[in-house]
Structures are given as structure tokens and as C-alpha cells.
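Homework help board

Subject: predicted structure for assignment chain

Our instructor gave us this sequence and asked us to write out the predicted structure in C-alpha cell form, then describe one feature. I got the C-alpha cells but I'm not sure how to describe them. Can anyone check?
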Amino acid sequence: MYVHNLGAQSLASLGDRLAEENEGEPVDHLRLIKTAYTNKKTGEIDDGVVRDVVTLIDSQMEQEVSQLQTEDDDSTGSTGLPRVRINQIVEASVPKKKGRLFGLARRSPSVPSASAPPPSYVDQEVLLSQMRDKDARISALESMVASQEAGWEAQRKLNEQMMAMMRSMNPNANVDFPTMPDPDFQTP
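My C-alpha cell output:
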């Protein structure tokens, strides 16, 4: 089994070092793979899988560049693809194992590139509509609570009237009827 030729250096720190050498611009995944897996003595990639992947990516890039040149004959001969497109080709071509890209350690396509567009924002109309719906729901709940409280108050008054009527029917009985403790209720 072959491993990268970085020694005590991680792929992330190699990417940072290559970006510094590239005037602060991040390098594409292909250059990172080639730099990490090329044998320093022989100048070749020893790992057969990495070698096959690099060959496949190189051929796909050549096809895309030639296709772009034939579509745009007036071109001044741009020979390179943008870093974002190269990374897309690499991510599509590299075998994935347990959700990770082979040869790129923990880097994954879900990590946005520096040139990725900003995240889209929710439309204000949608937010206003949601707020109106929630306000209507809050109002409905408040009115429901108010009607329940009014019902309880009416029941309390009815209970008071019934107790007064029972006491008036039998004034000699000294019986207290059990009541629920109510802080607002005052016995006559």
C-alpha cells in the first residue's frame, strides 16, 4: 500500500503552503494530489490508483479544454480551466470511501470554494407572510384563552349563587361546602 510522500506534513498544511507559493490563491485539488503523491526521488506517482486517477483527470481536462477551444475559435488560446472547474472534475473522478475523497483526506465537495456564490437569502415576502400567519395564530390563541377565562368566571359566579341559595334554604346547617382554592374567591 502506498501513502503520500509528505512526511509529517498534512494535506491541509500542504494546501496552505502551496497557496502561499501561489500568491495566496488556493491551488486546485489535482495539483495538491500530484504534489502529495509524487515520489521526490523518481518524480513519478508510485500508487497505482492515484496514478490512474491523475491520468483520467488529465485526459478529462484535455478534452474539456479542446472542446472549449473548438467552440470558441476566436479565443486567444486560453489553455487553462478555472480552479473551480478542475476541482469539480477531480471530485467527480476520484473514488469515494466512507464519504471521503480518495487522496484528499477529509476534503469534500461540500466545502464551498472561495469563488462560490454567497448563500441565497429568503424572500422578504415569504417572511412577512409567515409573520402574518403567526400573528393570526397568536390572536386566535389569545381570544381562546380569554373565552375560557370568561367561562370560568361565569361558572364561579354560578357556584357562588348556588351556595348562597343552599345556605338560605337551610340557615341552621353550619356546613361548609368543599371548594377549590381560588385566590380571587372570597367567602361571604
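Reply (TA_rk): Your C-alpha cells look well-formed. For the description, you could write something like this. Strands lie at 96-97, 100-101. That's the kind of observation they're looking for.
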